Amino acid sequence: MKNKIEYLTKPGRIGSLEIRNRMIMAPMGTSYGTPTGEVTQRLIDYLEARAKGGVGLIIVENTLVRPHEEYGESFVCQLTMWDYNSIPQWHELTSAIHFWGARVFVQINYPGSNVIPVGAPGVQPVTPSPMVIDSRSGEPIMSREASIKEIERLVEQYGETAFVAKLAGFDGVNIHCVHGYGIAGFQSGYMNRRADQYGGSLDNRMRFGLEILKKDKEKVGNDFPVTCRIPAEEFVPGGIHPDESVKIAQKYVEGGAHAIDLSCGTSVRGNKIVQSRYLPRVFLEPYFEMFKKAVSVPLIVAGSFNDPRDGERVLAEGKADFIAIGRGLLADAEYPNKAAEGRLEDIRPCRRCIDGCIHSHQEFFLPTDCAVNVEVGMEAKYKIVPAKKPKKVLVVGGGPAGMEAARVARLRGHDVILFEKSDQLGGNMIPGSVPNFKEEERWLIEWFSTQLKKLGVRVELNQEVRAEKVSDRYDAAIVATGAVPIVPEIPGVEKAVTATDVLLGKASAGKEVIVVGGGSVGCETALYLAEQGKKVKILEMLDDIALDIDKRIVKPSLIERMTNSGVTWFTGMRAVEVLDQGVNCISGGNKSTFPADTVVLAVGLKPVNALLNGLKEKIPECYAIGDCAGPRKVFQAIHEGSLIARRI
Fold it and tell me: Which pTM does this prediction carry?
């Protein structure tokens, strides 16, 4: 498809509200609020940057209808909107968004089963039926069943919150009816085991959500848009399936919803809610047409729209009315403006890695971040400003750390030259981008190359830098020489090949393959080979595989795809010898042999940093970043490169 974007830029309407284009910022939790849920300047700066970037409508993240101590919270510093005293701060936020021509809704919710006890200690979750909850922050906890009085009170609280939102300057509200949260729990046969008027049949299970929709509309009037976010499918036994979800959509429309917002999954299948690189982009497309035909109001669709051409195609084919973009707007706040201008090559691509936006947020309770965009949530602090004194900067190494350092240093006005000893930029991202499920990694390499060229950074390929030959005319040097595969010192290791060489096509693999090492590199290499029809086994010395990736979102999708491709794995296995046709291993003191045509090594990387000390003797400012300072993920490499370039 050509770069021309037409349908995404057309104005649209939700109810009586006109929206300047068809691009919507999906609600994403950030933890940018205060511990008690108030708005902060950090949150305003973050959302204002996306409004300035051209998005048509922003749906502010999952916001509670009551204080944290009443029903708990789903993530630390979750926003609340139940108190009239909060209206001034919320109005400051909506005004900042409106200033740039965007519209703004807020997603309102109570957490139900999606709680973290660390945020509100001692609060017992309230769900449609008692259930054991994986709290993400400790031992499983038991919820309690919502009483009829509590249900009636919650309905009133949703209505009051919608009214507060209207007073605060919001253009509409989005009722959260998906992902296993409060209303979604009542809707779902998987979670709702009630025998009263709020359980059993679909009509009964929907009663709570429909009462909330009715109450909201009573409070705000029909001219104020109220939309419902629902699941296309929940992907759990007894959960909502597509045929049932279509009926849910129709009932919400009958109840007065001004748009249906389509997502999927539950908290127990979080890997479907946020799709990592191991799932297809536009993940929900098979569901779009059935919902579009079933409802008479606009259909908003989500599901990894990090390439605007995907959204353009879906709209052109009449499968939806609006495209909800989440992580794509974290990676690049200017995504909509660049798409509208046809500058697709300038859109910084989301890698769908989950490392900053989900993993660090949910696993370590940190504010939302982004692997490729250090400015997310730090728009004021990390704004790129001109250097007080332009310098001549040497960057050695063209991996993600070096490329980002060169890009930011040049944006600050420095004279930058980058040397790369190979014939292309990308570093260890190059072999990592080879599998077809790592397409976004290739996009990122292309984006960096394009930006360096446009900025006028001098790039010298096939140039290995030696300290003794480096001129002392440089004011600063950034060493980003990367890392190389570790080759264990075991008998016969020369008969093996590295994962890097296999991925780069420098080594071939036979029909039966043993991959030694079950980290992310080993697992992805195994999957890459298995999808070529090879029989692949992984041997890992630790007790589990894929321990270096997110365990809630990314790992389940990787394991599912590996299993479907026939990859098998054995843990607690230490390789002790490579044979002509296999590997000898020891496990628990017992020796075993695994036959194979090819043995592939994926046991980690070791830094290449010999250049550093030599350069320190010649250049006053000298920094080591990325893998050469110690094996890194792309997330850490890019952040290091970006921040070092801001210090020079």
Answer: 0.96
